[in-house]
Amino acid sequence: MNRPPDDAPEYDDAGDMIPFLDDPEPAAGAAPSRDGDHRTEPAPAGVAGAADGGRFSDGPGTADPGPHPGLADAVPGPAESGQGGDESGRGPVEHASGQGREGAAGREGRADVHAEGSTERDEPGQAAHGSGTAGQTPDGSPSGAGGVPAAGEAQASEGRRRAVRQVGLLAAGVLVGALALGVGAVVWLKPYLSPEDFEGTGSGAVTVRITPGSSAASIGSTLEKAGVVASAESFVEATEARSVSDRLRPGHYRLRKGMAATAALDLLLAPASRVVTRVTVPEGLRVSEVLPRVAKATGIPLAELQGVDKELVGLPSYAKGLEGFLFPATYEVEPGDTAVDVLAAMVERFRQAARHVRLEERAKQVNLTPFEAVTVASLIQAEGGTDDDYPKIARVIYNRLAKDTPLEIDSTVLYAQNRRTLKVSEKDTKVDSPYNTYRRKGLPVGPIANPGEKALVAALNPAKGDWHWFVTTDPAHRITKFTDKESEFVRYREELNKNLGTN
Question: Average pLDDT for residues 444-465, to the nearest whole number?
């Protein structure tokens, strides 16, 4: 840096202003400025050969922390006044062009300080300029202008060797530490980087229960505790590799101990591995027929099914009992399921269907309560026929109710007698029961079967027509005929009796 303008004051380390001097003679030991200006400034302690106004120190100290642009590689340490430095700690020689030359004497055998446009001075302690021999005065005697005493060279060499040894020891220590840390990290991370796993398909047999909502990690933990897989992590890794987490289902599974994670996953995805009892409840069965069927399929005692507290199975508020609300479907009964569990699942399946067909809302549109709508659906289901016949049967029921005419449906009197037959006699129609629609007008007191969803839909969406009678003339082929004339009805009944061989 060139000298500051006259109006720019400088400050010393203590913050006091340093006054400018008009071209004073350089003091002994002072270094010339970069542009040949002979004005010198006392250097901060420990700073030698600073570029752009750099100063030499004549005593021990540390580098000036203040703003000195161009200070180049000052090395703390003792230095003779005016002596150029080397790498031994005496302070670096400054190349006055602004490029700090560190340890020039040690590297190039020179201690020249070049100051373009400067004037040679032979004053004691001042660095030689021009072509003078480095390290000597004009009379050949040792000089502080850049020469380094032999003792200083030895100290510098020894210092460098010590520094190299220290750096080498430090680097070796860091390397050993890093290797130790790396080995420890591998040991610690091994279960995660390469989780423990068995090989093969295992042996023996074990039943494992997967609870609803289990994640791959929780399933893996269950398998590990049961001895099926070596680690939960191996199972999770196998599941993620095949992207099948969404295919894992709750239930009981028959597996083997000591299986590879992939083999265990294969069995969990195979339906045959699942330990489950399936029971199918067809449409139109009565409760008295459903419960023995479930008992036989599941091994749950019939008495337990018949004695279930109806409050425990989740019946809708409008239900008066199980009849009509054990929805026909195929159910999976897990080991350990109780009578309450099974019946509750069937009732819940009814509630799902009721929500789907909007039972409570749509019942009002046909002037029925939800319970009455289920009752009508049970009549439709019990009378049979085809799916296309269901809305027509519903229309016959509503037309007769509208005219306050007895429904005269055979299946109601058979329900009252707990019988199953296609042959209904005159005596049957006279049975005393609130379910006998020959003797009582209106709907029976409750459902007579458990209807499916199609019968529920038909009860809520009857077909349009004036029919007052229907007869399934050919039960074997499910042929049902509808009419609004009594004479045709009589003819249809004769056709049925002929097919049944009752004429």
Answer: 98
